[in-house]
Specification:
CATH topology: Alpha-Beta Plaits
CATH architecture: 2-Layer Sandwich
CATH class: Alpha Beta
Number of strands: 9
Structural class: alpha+beta
Order of helices and strands: HEHEEHEEHEEHHEHE
Strand order of the largest sheet: 8-1-9
Distance between the termini: 51 Å
Length: about 240
């Protein structure tokens, strides 16, 4: 057995024992939540979770969402060029007007995710509620999903990991990306980036159920213009942006 295989087995054994991982079929919880939904209870398609990001309220110098994501998911955030970063800030400039916009970009949680289409093992999957995830137990690190993602939202873990967060299993040789803080969502909480943005006084990120016309996010989308990044691809992302 190679060192890589031995490390993979060790990680999987740890994850199975410590996190009580469930079946990986789409529509079923990946991890046992600390509170709330019972492990055997399937996720339904009644809700579709998503984000609405108002770039008019997102400041170029603010990285509260990035910092919160790193802390919540056990990412070091030490070296942007080499370490995993599930949210990155992108600066845009309109060459015609000179107008600038700063926006956080993460996994867009597409309705038709190309990462799922190309995955040879089924490790990449979309839950019934719209959250796109990677099952680390069967990810072989082929990186096809990374190449297929038009948002460059995925990365491969190259090095052994330590001091991981109990709710967020990670492993060397596997691909990862924003999970929309699924462990928090399953407990009835908002993603860490949303909480941090609100605490910083920005309120630029709205989280909620896109299928519920009475939700704050659905009302905003109905009232104000918003766009999906690369809408021309027909992927119907669950993340929308105002002001770009």
């Amino acid at each position: 057995m190679s060192g890589r295989d031995a490390a993979r087995r060790q990680f999987l054994a740890w994850g199975a024992g410590a996190l009580a991982t469930l079946t990986i079929a789409p529509g079923v919880l990946l991890l046992r939540p600390v509170h709330g939904r019972a492990p055997e209870q399937a996720v339904t398609g009644k809700a579709r979770w998503g984000l609405l990001i108002d770039t008019n309220r997102c400041a170029a110098g603010c990285d509260a969402c990035v910092t919160a994501c790193n802390r919540e998911n056990g990412l070091s955030g030490a070296t942007r060029e080499t370490d995993a970063q599930w949210i990155r800030k992108v600066e845009l400039r309109d060459p015609r007007t000179g107008r600038k916009a700063s926006l956080p970009v993460m996994c867009q949680h597409c309705e038709h995710p190309p990462c799922v289409d190309v995955c040879p093992t089924g490790a990449s999957f979309r839950r019934a509620d719209g959250i796109v995830l990677v099952d680390k137990h069967i990810c072989i690190g082929c990186r096809y999903c990374m190449m297929a993602c038009p948002y460059k939202a995925r990365s491969l873990v190259h090095e052994p990991l330590a001091d991981q967060q109990p709710d967020v299993p990670r492993g060397k040789g596997t691909v990862e990306s924003c999970t929309l803080c699924v462990h928090r969502v399953d407990r009835g909480e908002r993603p860490a980036c949303v909480e941090a943005c609100a605490a910083a006084g920005r309120g630029a990120i709205v989280f909620g159920d896109l299928n519920d016309p009475a939700s704050a996010i659905a009302r905003r989308i109905a009232q104000y213009p918003s766009v999906q990044v690369r809408a021309d691809l027909g992927l119907n992302p669950g993340v929308r942006y105002e002001g770009i």
